[in-house]
Specification:
By secondary structure, the chain is α/β, with parallel strands linked by helices. Helices cover 52% and strands 12% of the residues. Helix 7 packs antiparallel against helix 8 and helix 8 packs parallel to helix 10.
Length: 328
């Protein structure tokens, strides 16, 4: 039986990387991201998960805070959407993690590095194809002023490693593959694909969620929230695009028929691309909901024949079934 629990849901990631007794999973993840010769040997989770059911708490913070034996501070978070100002928010979190160390009488040289790690299921850096990006204070020639402020991005959409060459992948690539596919694998497959015991231990934490009714309720609650939040952001972008298209058509008429026709062709081409992208997003959401609800129909081939309106309606039907507890 597959694990069935995705670490891309922030509740699951929080339990996986901040549960007492499983610190070596967190250490292995951090060492993979940092890629340093001198590895982290020990870690203290500063905000372990101890909360009750939080179904109605839409603003619960599920970031992971930790400190290693060198005193370095870590903040790990999951982002399944790209909200406005995300770059600035990550810089703010890093600066706050750094500044909050300072107390009256402390010396600047006593400050320890502050490191923010953001796992993204969508692309933030469109101009880059790198899976892992490491930001620090450097000059244009690459000379480092200090390593005390770091922001690491793990953009999962940029993973190119496949199952068949996973054993030769880098530690970062292995973790990216695990995050994307753990829910669809069995424990046996995970042990075969990942010889490092930390991955099996991480999968074991995910299995605990599935077997614990309270944790499963919290997991489904956060999954619903992430899907709804993603839907709200996508709807806002769609509305903005529609307004932009209407304005463009009006300007085209004013500027002249010929120019308007050229612009209309271009707008139509862009709209077609957006339509295809939107259908892909909707099909992905529907497949996730089908897995939760235990539904096999319609198939991906059948869904591909639906237009965006039909997919949107079907997605809403499945969402309603989840909200009303119709999971059979």
């Amino acid at each position: 039986m597959t694990i069935g629990i995705s670490p891309l849901v922030d509740f699951a990631l929080k339990l996986m990387l901040s549960s007492r007794g499983h610190e070596r999973v967190t250490i292995h993840f951090l060492n993979a991201i940092l890629g340093e010769k001198v590895k982290i040997a020990s870690i203290v989770i500063q905000n372990p998960f101890v909360g009750p059911n939080f179904e109605d708490d839409k603003f619960l913070v599920l970031d992971i805070l930790a400190e290693d034996e060198q005193g370095r501070k870590f903040n790990i978070e999951m982002q399944t959407s790209i909200p406005g100002g995300l770059r600035q928010r990550l810089a703010f979190y890093d600066a706050r993690l750094y500044v909050e160390q300072m107390r009256e009488g402390d010396q600047y040289h006593e400050l320890r590095p502050a490191i923010v790690i953001c796992v993204l299921t969508k692309s933030l850096l469109k101009e880059s194809e790198r899976l892992h990006t490491d930001f620090r204070l450097r000059d244009e020639a690459g000379q480092v002023l200090t390593d005390d402020l770091q922001v690491h991005l793990l953009e999962l959409t940029k993973l190119t490693v496949r199952r068949e060459n996973l054993k030769t992948a880098t530690p970062v690539e292995k973790w990216a593959y695990f995050l994307l596919n753990a829910d669809k694998m069995t424990m046996k497959e995970i042990r075969e694909l990942f010889p490092e015991p930390e991955f099996a231990e991480a999968a074991g934490v995910l299995e605990v969620i599935k077997n614990n009714p309270d944790q499963m309720d919290n997991y489904i609650s956060r999954l619903k929230y992430q899907l709804d939040d993603d839907w709200r952001l996508e709807s806002t972008r769609s509305e903005a695009l529609s307004e932009g298209e209407a304005k463009g058509r009006l300007e085209g008429r004013i500027e002249g028929l010929k120019e308007g026709e050229q612009k209309g062709l271009k707008d139509g081409e862009q709209k077609g691309l957006k339509e295809g992208e939107r259908k892909g997003i909707l099909i992905g959401r529907i497949e996730t909901l089908q897995e939760i609800l235990g539904l096999a129909e319609p198939t991906r081939d059948e869904l591909s024949g639906y237009d965006a309106t039909q997919l949107s309606e079907l997605c809403e039907q499945f969402r309603f079934r989840m909200r009303t507890g119709q999971t059979e």
